[in-house]
Each structure stands twice: as C-alpha cells, then as structure tokens.
Design goal:
By secondary structure, the protein is of the alpha/beta class. It folds into 2 domains: about 5-260, Phosphoenolpyruvate-binding domains (TIM Barrel, Alpha-Beta Barrel); about 270-300, no CATH class. Helix content is about 40%, strand content about 15%. The chain has an 8-stranded parallel beta barrel with strand order 1-2-3-4-5-6-7-8, surrounded by 7 helices. It is elongated and about 85 Å long. Bound molecules: 3-methyl-2-oxobutanoic acid and sodium ion. Sodium ion (NA) binds near residues 65, 66 and 77. Sodium ion (NA) binds near residues 64, 65, 66, 77 and 163.
C-alpha cells in the first residue's frame, strides 16, 4: 500500500480501511486477513476487471496513542511517552508487513518546537519502523507538517475531536456542531492538507460536515464517529473486539463505537473455567496434558 493507492481509492470512491494495532498479536490479526500476494507474472489488470472488487485486507494499520488507555491502562493518551510508543511500534511492525504503518506522535513530543517534532518523527520511522506519522491539530502544526513533508516523512493529520487536547476541550466532545466550530474543522483540515498531509482523520464530527469536508479536500479523509461519507474508516481494535467488556453497547463507550465481537467476555469465561478446573484437579488431565515416562525400570522405581 502506498499514498498513491489511497488517492486512487478516494478517486474511485472505494472506502479505505484503517484499524489500530498496539502489539504483535493485534498486528497479526490484521495481517491474517491480508490477501495473498499476487503470483509472479500475473497482471494486476485482471483482478480489476472482474465483477467483484479485488480482495483487500486492512489498508492502514495505526499504532494510535489510544494504546495508552487500552494497552497501558493510563487515564488518557497524554501519559504516553515517545519511548513507550516506540516499543509498541516495533512490535506492530514485526507482526504487520503488508499494511501501510502509521503511528501517532505522542502528546508533547512535537509541542516545544518543529525540531522536536522532526526528531520524534524520525525516531518513529527509524526505530519504530513506521511508514508515516499522525499528528493532531490544525494551523499550529502546519510548520511541522510542512517540514516533515519536505524531508520525506508522510503525515496523516487528525482534526475534529483531538484527544490529546481533551482537557482543553473540556472532555471528549463532538466538534463542529455549531457554525463557528464547523468552520474551524474545515479550516483545520484545509490547513493541514495545504501543508502537505497525505490524509486526515476526522474524529467525532457530524456526518454531514464530514461528507462536506471530504468532497472539498483533495486528500482522503478517514472517519471515526464521522459517518460513511468519509473516504475511509478507522476504529480502535480492542474497542471493536470488545476486549474491555464494560465498553460499547450499553457501556460507557462513545456512540460511534461498534462492537464486532465480545472478546473480553470470552476471555473472562476462559479464565474462570481454568481456575475452576485447576481447583477441581480436572486440569491437567493425565495422558492428555502430561508426559509419560519411557524407561519402564525408572517408572517401577517411582512406585
Ligand atoms: O489513537 C488512536 O487510536 C487514534 C484513532 C482512533 C484515530 O487516533
Ligand atoms: Na490517537
């Protein structure tokens, strides 16, 4: 997957798929649905001319700083350091070799100066083995987006609800519901596009506004809580898997979160069964989970 592919998908109105990963297993889940590489010598045109679209896995794997909460148990993304992010990036890169890899620049790693931001981004590429970085913000990140684009580090921007500013925004609130805040979402998106961003995440904005912005931008929009009018969608993998059983339907998760599985509940049942079987000495089962002695003389010695 390349940036050119994402532009073509936007042009052809084929939705771009993005999902987060934060460690080796979650990266392997993404990799496991990647279509097999085309046989050498087979023409890519034949796949495009069939009636059904060519099979695709996840186009973009995001090492999002939401891992601060879902993988580290921090109360917000702002506790995550660049070094912690790098550790997660390397694990994801080992598991996920076909999707385009993007990682968040953590809170604070780009706030003091453009130079700080460039150094942090270089580390995500060089030590974290990412293809691109994602940065939250509008006009205030323009000098950094421009510099990174100049030196060849692709930038995905992130506007609308920007969780790194949740304290300043008075919580995780939908953005763009009033005219003035809708104008801000549009102006932020325009600013980062014009600075060179190759795509932009629109988080928690009304679907009509997201569709309007998507039509007017040259670059693809990736929505989360922004409706189907975006050029692509993203979700946090552990949220959509239902790893935390308190989140989602009926829980405290956001409205835009759809749970595709109940992994947390399944895990809880498994742990409960294990404890129960150990206590009842049902597990391990002799013969099935145990090793026999092969030397009969030695076996006799034990009796
Ligand atoms: O950190 C994250 O997972 C994100 C996505 C939800 C866009 O930024
Ligand atoms: Na993020």
């Amino acid at each position: 997957r390349t940036i050119m592919d994402f532009n073509n998908l936007k042009k052809k109105k084929v939705p771009i798929t993005m999902l987060t990963a934060h460690d080796y297993p979650s990266a392997r889940f993404i990799e496991s649905i990647a279509p097999p590489a085309p046989a050498p010598g087979s023409s890519p045109a034949s796949a495009g001319s069939s009636t059904s679209p060519a099979p695709r896995g996840i186009d973009i794997a995001l090492v999002g700083d939401s891992l601060a909460m879902v993988a580290c148990g921090y109360p917000s993304t702002n506790y995550l350091t660049l070094d912690e992010m790098l550790y997660h990036c390397r694990s994801v890169a080992r598991g996920c070799t076909t999707s385009f890899l993007v990682a968040d620049l953590p809170f604070g790693s780009f706030s003091a100066s453009v130079e700080d931001g460039v150094r942090a981004a270089v580390r995500l590429i060089q030590e974290g083995h990412m293809d691109a970085v994602k940065i939250e913000g509008g006009p205030e990140i323009v000098p950094l987006v421009r510099r990174l684009t100049e030196v060849g580090i692709p930038v995905m921007a992130h506007v609308g609800l920007t969780p790194q500013r949740q304290a300043a925004l008075s919580g995780y609130r939908v953005q763009g519901k009033t005219v003035s805040s809708a104008v801000k979402v549009w102006e932020d998106a325009r600013a980062v596009q014009d600075a060179g961003a190759f795509a932009v995440v629109l988080e928690a904005v009304p679907s009509k506004l997201a569709a309007w912005v998507t039509e007017r931008l040259r670059i693809p929009t990736i929505g989360i809580g922004a409706g189907a009018g975006c050029d692509g969608q993203v979700l946090v993998q552990s949220d959509m898997l239902g790893v935390d059983s308190d989140l989602g339907a009926g829980g405290k998760g956001p409205r835009f979160l759809k749970k595709y599985a109940d992994v947390g509940e399944r895990a809880r049942e498994a742990v409960r069964s294990y404890v129960d079987e150990v206590r009842r000495r049902v597990f391990p089962t002799e013969g099935e989970h145990t090793y026999p002695i092969e030397d009969k003389a030695w076996e006799g010695f034990l009796e």
